[in-house]
UniProtKB/TrEMBL annotation:
Encoding gene, per UniProt annotation: metC
Lineage: Bacteria, Pseudomonadati, Pseudomonadota, Alphaproteobacteria, Rhodospirillales
Pathway entry: Amino-acid biosynthesis; L-methionine biosynthesis via de novo pathway; L-homocysteine from L-cystathionine: step 1/1
Record-stated family: Belongs to the trans-sulfuration enzymes family.
EC class of the enzyme, as a word: lyase
PANTHER family, A to Z: CYSTATHIONINE BETA-LYASE-RELATED
Cofactor(s) for this UniProt protein: pyridoxal 5'-phosphate
UniProt cross-references to Gene3D superfamilies, sorted A to Z: Aspartate Aminotransferase, domain 1, Type I PLP-dependent aspartate aminotransferase-like (Major domain)
GO molecular function: cysteine-S-conjugate beta-lyase activity; pyridoxal phosphate binding
One record GO biological process: L-cysteine catabolic process to pyruvate
Keyword check for Isomerase: no
Pfam families per the UniProt record, alphabetical: Cys_Met_Meta_PP
Documented EC number(s): 4.4.1.8
Protein name, per record: Cystathionine beta-lyase
UniProtKB keywords: Lyase, Pyridoxal phosphate
Length: 387
């Protein structure tokens, strides 16, 4: 694959500084002790370097933050308690009352909800934009942040990131991207002009469906603003969770290679199967923005969405209730396969979803691809039997 494979093995650990132990130890801490008054005062002058107080992180946190900063190609990272917190804290770091935000229409649903409720209450106005449209005409004098997510949630529209960041740069606007889809492995946002990149580490970085975590990575110009926002709000993450996230990182590229292979096999199978109206995958030529995916990405993950011919709720329930290998549940990025039904239109205001039938999103896990296809085929037969 790429040099990121080697990076993921090497980064964020120093065995010879830790008795030769391969993995960084879990440092639990609240209080940090200083030998002298001079040291105590010096710590006050450099609040964001080294161990200062448990809430600011311990050496385990810093090892993870360093690893993700290198993976994403940014200056420094901040670990926060969830992917959603990484998003909301980034928005709060750059926006205040009277400001205007440009938010991609295909954004993760809870991000949209935060804009429409909390940010609105703080008098920040949000305009949603079509992921494939030029953002320049939507920029106002008070636009302070352009937020991207590419590929989009559920429907995977791919954005021309470099075009958006070029416009942002000229107008002095900060650009931030939710880069969770690529896991930091398949897309390097800072090479495309992004200022701040967000990972819901809960997904592929942790990779085992057992930890909630977000990482915000910033360039040198914006890092202090992000760090201050998280530190002043008071978020803290458990060093045990940081340990698990670091452990997940070590196998990220082999897991994703398998997720990718299985998802593509299933997507190709779905595209040939009767009763399927549309298969949505960024590697497919009919995915909106596919050319940008080909230009900018080095791979794809375990997600694929599809639309069936119109069906009843009973048909959809028959499909979902009888699945043997695909679990019915939110989130993704673990080793297991998942399926959820979804309806994109209620969470879109600037774009229109052109299909009528029920939509399903798959997360293709590490099981045998043929067995997953069999499970899906039986499910589709149940749906088609009910009509
Ligand atoms: C899951 C997800 C999040 C939120 O992450 P949590 O850790 O669940 O809060 C944010 N963005 C995207 C694209 C996601 O898929």
């Amino acid at each position: 694959m790429t040099a990121k494979d080697t990076l993921l093995v090497q980064v964020g650990r120093e065995p010879h500084a830790n008795h030769g132990v391969v993995n960084p130890p879990v440092y639990r801490a609240s209080t940090i002790l200083y030998p002298t008054l001079a040291d105590y005062e010096e710590a006050d002058r450099t609040p964001f370097s080294g161990t200062r107080y448990g809430r600011r992180g311990t050496p385990t946190t810093f090892a993870l933050e360093e690893a993700v900063a290198r993976l994403e190609g940014g200056y420094r990272s901040v670990a926060v308690p969830s992917g959603l917190a990484a998003i909301t804290l980034t928005l709060m770091a750059f926006l205040k009352a009277g400001d205007h935000l440009l938010m991609v229409d295909t954004v993760y649903g809870p991000t949209r909800r935060f804009c429409d409720t909390v940010l609105k209450g703080f008098e920040v106005e949000t305009t949603y934009y079509d992921p494939l449209a030029d953002v320049a005409p939507l920029i106002r004098a008070n636009t302070k942040l352009i937020f991207l997510e590419s590929p989009g949630s559920l429907t995977f529209e791919v954005q021309d990131v470099a075009a958006v960041t070029a416009v942002a740069r000229v107008r002095g606007i900060v650009s931030a991207i939710d880069n969770t889809w690529s896991a930091g492995l398949f897309f390097s946002p800072f090479e495309h002009g992004i200022d701040v990149s967000i990972q819901a580490a809960t997904k592929y970085i942790v990779g085992h469906s057992d930890v909630m975590m977000g990482l915000i990575t910033a360039n040198e110009a914006t890092w202090l603003r992000v760090k201050r926002a998280t530190a002043f709000v008071g978020t803290a993450v458990s060093p045990d969770d940081c340990y698990l996230a670091l452990r997940g990182l070590r196998t990220l590229s082999v897991r994703l290679a398998r997720h990718q292979e299985t998802a593509l096999a299933i997507a190709r199978w779905l595209a040939r199967r009767a009763g399927i109206v549309h298969v949505r995958h960024p590697a497919f030529a009919d995915c909106p923005g596919h050319a940008f995916w080909r230009r900018d990405f080095t791979g794809s993950n375990g997600l694929v969405s599809f639309v069936t011919e119109p069906a009843s709720r009973e048909g959809v329930a028959a499909l979902l209730d009888g699945m043997r290998l695909f679990g019915l549940g939110a989130s993704w990025g673990g080793y297991e396969s998942l399926i959820i039904p979804f309806d994109p239109q209620p969470v879109r205001t600037a774009t229109r979803w052109p299909y009528e039938g029920p939509c399903f999103r798959l997360h293709c896990g590490l099981e045998d691809a043929d067995e997953l296809i069999e499970d899906l085929d039986e499910g589709l037969k149940r749906l088609q039997a009910r009509g």
